Amino acid sequence: MSKFSTEYIKVSERGTGVLLVELSRGPVNAFKEKFWRQFGQVFDSIHEDGTVRAVVLASAVPKMFSAGLDLNEALGSHMEKDPGRQGFYLKEHIRAFQSAISAVERCRVPVIAAVHGLAIGLAVDITSACDIRFAASTAVFAIKEVDVGLAADIGTLARFPKVVGNQSLVRELAMTARNFGADEALAVGFISKVVKGNRGEVVAAALDTARLIASKSPVAVVGTKQILLHSRDHSVQDNLEYTAAWNAFALQSSDTVDCMAAFKTKKDPSFSALPNISKSKL
Length: 282
Known about the structure:
Lyase 2-enoyl-coa Hydratase, Chain  A, domain 2; delta(3,5)-delta(2,4)-dienoyl-CoA isomerase activity; alpha/beta; 2-enoyl-CoA Hydratase, Chain A, domain 1; single chain; 11 helices; isomerase; globular
């Protein structure tokens, strides 16, 4: 078991620089507050570790990825008598929840979602924040929040429309809460690959891709993730300026020299780890 593991998150090394992060709260990976806080802490810790180059996010539960929010806990959450004061509490609670799930996006290395079985509600928030999404042929998604009387508030409505790019379909899925399977998810661009089989097959496929990414220059891979995230939310010209600033220092990396040498010698390049990042030392 890896140093990153917690009570509800299993982390294991699956190759040089490759981690498998598994949601592990049986029987259905329903998220209570302790679970989602651990989720954010794990990915923030991975972000800080320079030896990690790619991550696969999967479920350790055999029959599904996640049933979403633990409604039993949510119904018993903190309540203030005064609605105005309750609003202050709920806003901060939602922001903390959003931040924990956004840790996937903040993580400097690529995160590949490997989804099987049901992926409901919060599971769509989580997978929308990942860089790459693979699904087993058994996968079934649903933006389920309207069925419990609220608008999805942890990231789906912010990210899913930009991933899919079809506003009519986004509204249909978000307002009807209907299920959509792996083939439809592929057709609309939410996932990039359907893997025939179930959990074992999709995790294996995601790990293969993670190992390929981990063999590349970590400076180039991290830079690519950051520039793509910036591009999503900014104009073309703003992103070109950002890219120029990023590559002004990245092009001075020894990785560039190593890649050129490897190309000439026809040998696989070897790259050093990125520096660790410790917020406490900044």
